[in-house]
Amino acid sequence: MDYKSIYSSWKSDPERFWMEAAKAIDWVKFPSHALNESRKPFYQWFSDGEVNTCYNAVDRHVEAGLGTKDAIIYDSPVTGGKSKLTFKELLEQTSKFASALHRSGVQKGDRVIIYMPMIPEAIVSMLACARLGAIHSVVFGGFAAKELAVRIEDAKPRAIVSGSCGIEPSGVVPYKPLLDKAIELSNHKPEFCVVYQRKQLEAQLVLGRDFEWNDFQKRSSEHPCHPVLGSDPLYILYTSGTTGQPKGVIRPTGGHLVSLMWTMRNFYGVDPGDVFWAASDVGWVVGHSYIVYAPLFAGNTTVLFEGKPVGTPDPGTFWRVVQEHKIKTLFTAPTAFRAIKRSDPNGDYIKKFDISSLRALFLAGERADPDTIKWASEKLKVPVIDHWWQTETGFPMVGYPLGFKSPEVKIGSAGLPMPGFQIEVLGDDGESLGADMLGSIAVKLPLPPGTLPTLWNADERFKSAYLSRFPGYYETGDAGTIDPEGYVSIMARTDDVINTAGHRLSTGAMEEVLTEHPDIAECAVIGVKDELKGQIPIGFICLNAGVNREPSGIMEEVVQSIREKIGPVASFKIAIVVDRLPKTRSGKILRGTMLKIANGDEFKTPATIDDATILIEIEQALEKVGYPQ
Ligand code: COA
Ligand code: AMP
Fold first, then answer.
1. Residue-wise burial string across 116-148, b where 16 or more C-beta atoms lie within 10 A, e elsewhere
2. Ligand 1 mean position to 58 CA, how many Å?
3. Among residues 487, 492, 493, 368, which one has the least CA distance to residue 436?
4. How far is the CA of 365 from the centre of ligand 1 (A)?
5. Is 388 in the pocket of ligand 2 (CB under 6 A)?
6. What is the pLDDT of residues 229-284, one digit of tens each?
7. Which ranges of 62-160 would DSSP assign to H, the alpha helix?
8. How many whole angstroms from 518 Cα to the centroid of ligand 1?
9. How much is the pTM?
């Protein structure tokens, strides 16, 4: 079958398409229908089906006689650790941990926050929650205590599962003090915490509240899978919006199973038993979907890699992993390849390894620049495939599916719409724009199975953030074009979200932290072009009248407070003190113009001398810190 036929088979009868796809899942009760519009615009899929996610990821493979096959390969260059878990071992560990959680009171619908590094116990914790029908919410380890606190406050977890520390190339990152601080900051307190003690740094436990991972499960053995409804939430994953309050994206159980399972053969072109490696982090959506769930649903071996593309120990680490574990499919963010290319421009490290098992490289998480795609294809000699999606969708909206007679690849475009997604480019008034015209990218409702039905405890915010601007459509927050042959190109965000090293961050949230500083009157944070990370945040701050401290001291303080309040992952290293910020007549800060100056792009010179002077001041301030680069 070719791409066009599969897309039109979906478009002509979505209900039939998804009911057919649902057959690849083992249901306790097969759903009588796919789409349920009774709570429109909160669409539900497979809502009367009964199913369990953990059963489909683990138990069913063991029951099918595949228990001795590897489910997880853990490879950690930062610790030197390597291990494997078969499906049978994964079942034993998951069932035991689920039993212990259940004995401690965790029930279907309860929330459990997971704040863990890239270790197998993170996956065991996620699956154990799924086994009980409890809703997990994984928080990325690079976030600071306040970000964790906001998520605890919103999700109100009964329990938190954490690791004692993470390991970054710069050293050991103690997680437990961050967890303790977050619990202190939050009004909601979990009933208990389970802490996995890593030997690199053991954490101090709070008597009566914290339990050590092994002690916690000492008296437990196994626990069955609890069936849930197809529309029940599997997890909440918080993602950046325009403010400091992150959005709690809900992932519905049935649609998630069906859509992810569909993508493994049809989109990624893998078969059961193949080794699949998503070099991301379990804290991000790519990690949820393609480190943990989809490969396990499809009976693949998934690789859990605790390291970086460079520096752990060198830019050959990816190729060593490919050779050693016979990786068929690699999925990562373009920034990882930019880092490798910068350290190993001729690809000398690639030549040291046998990477003949590799069939394809998939890139997502940020715009894949043509240079990086060309370099990777030339050096790896496999198809390099861009694809576009978001936390909200959980799986690709646009791409080049490998499971069908492949459409021609156009470098610079993220590809063609996948079944489930009718994508249009809309103008400011909501009119559909013609080919190659730049506008807001929107998806016709309903979104397909597995995508967010709403935000956790925030139906109104869901409507205002995604559905209100273009009635009948989901607004993606990305701008781009569609060419006459239907290829979609993603150009930029239309909101205050930036993408730093494949991590989605809110400049609005950073501005909120900056304005908390007692000496700061106002500020603006913009995401400036960066050769390695794609974008990095730069803050402009105006001081209160009468403040006569050295600006450098204030700059250092704000850099530190973003690190403490949002986390090191924000990569916020540059703050500049300026006298004034450029504004429109109505007082809106001209962030777009400042960004053009920082990126060295052309911008419109303002009409008045005063406005022009402000821009010159911004230009001079940027020059001092080396921008445009
Ligand atoms: N726990 C604690 N700290 C973390 C962390 C974690 N899980 N992940 C990142 N950090 C810290 C880093 O140590 C760094 O701290 P520093 O300021 O003290 O150096 C900071 O957050 C920024 O991290 P990062 O943006 O990852 O930059 P880097 O310089 O360490 O590495 C790359 C740069 C490009 C090599 C790296 O970003 C990378 O591998 N990216 C792959 C992208 C990816 O996985 N994206 C996920 C979506 S697909
Ligand atoms: P996240 O929700 O963290 O996965 O980030 C989603 C955002 O990352 C999208 O809205 C885009 O802005 C950006 N993004 C993801 N994949 C791509 C891609 N292939 N090309 C361009 N931008 C992308």
1. bbbbbbbbbbbbbbbbbbbbbbbbbbbbbbbbb
2. 30
3. 487
4. 14
5. yes
6. 999 999 999 998 878 899 999 999 999 999 999 999 999 999 999 999 999 999 99
7. 87-103, 120-132, 145-155
8. 30
9. 0.95
